[in-house]
Amino acid sequence: MTDPQLDAVQAQALDDISAARTLAELEAARVAHTGRRSPLATTLAGIGALPPERRGAVGKAANAVRRAVEAALAARTEELEAEELGAALERDTTDVTLPGDPHPLGALHPITQVRQEMEDILMGLGYRVADGPEVETDWHVFTALNTPEGHPARSPSDTFFIDGRPDRLLRTQTSPVQVREMQRSEPPIYLVAPGPVYRRDDIDATHSPMFHQMEGLAVDEGLTLAHLKGTMLRFFRELLGGEREILLQPHFFPFTEPSVDVQVSYVDKSGRTGWLELAGAGMVDPNVLRYCGIDAERYTGFAFGCGLDRIAMIRFGVPDLRLFFENDLRFLEQFA
């Protein structure tokens, strides 16, 4: 094939590429002019059979044609793709400038947020998180916790008992978790037990028949009320702010002796300072240790408990406890 013939091949290829009106037509032109059976491919393949004096000139001319054809193909491909995209956009009635439909992201429930924060604080103090059944036995809820027969908490008017099973009930506190852990573990024991509890109590906006507690237990040699006070002070300062102070007021719980209410300092909207009761606590009654098989002469312990829901109400300024359980997204999305 002579140089004029290569010129003709190039001219025909460029004409066909320019005449292509679709990407499919352009692909057909590419195959016809650069494919394995194209005149250009035949020329390139036959260079080795030419006389030595012609190989250089023909090879140079053929490669120049190849580069010209490939450049024309690339340029026409870009043009046709732009044209087809423009046509598709004209056919599409979608307004791409409108905002899309957002995919809503989930978030932790505010009570879960508070629970995890409280767990993190106590785990930083060396406690571990424990869990237990919500349907419990009378022994674990009352007897092992030193609650005597005839105590109001044992009455069906205060507690949800299982029909036909007078020894089974919905736990009224997470203290049974502590009992089970003391039965299966040897001191030292440092644990927190968060979770839902149940009581027949829904008299106002701050009470619910189902709510959440977090109780803590420490059993070791030499523990005193001073250790309890130090733990409570550190815990509430971490949770509610380093300026908080605490006040221990005498109280009574069957499973602790002595027992105290833990009150935390706060400033109301008028700037007045006061005390807010946030937890019950005390030294574990020796009877409770004995029920669980722990040597009460060697070990002492302290326990504390507070309502997760009440802490969440304080943290987020929520006036009605029931809002946490109504599953109203207008309310819950505020905490996302």
CATH class of the largest domain: Alpha Beta
**What is the CA-CA span between the terminal residues?**
76 Å
Strand order, main sheet: write it out. Answer: 1-5-6-10-9-8-7
What is the domain tally?
A: 2
Largest β sheet strand count, sense and barrel closure: 7 strands, mixed
Overall shape: elongated
Count of individual helical segments? 11
The CATH superfamily of the largest domain turns out to be Bira Bifunctional Protein, Domain 2
Give the beta-strand count. 10
Structure class:
alpha+beta
Round the Cα radius of gyration to an integer and report it: 40 Å
Mean pLDDT: 89
Q: Which features does this protein show?
A:
alpha+beta, BirA Bifunctional Protein, domain 2, 2 domains, seven-stranded mixed beta sheet, three-stranded antiparallel beta sheet, elongated
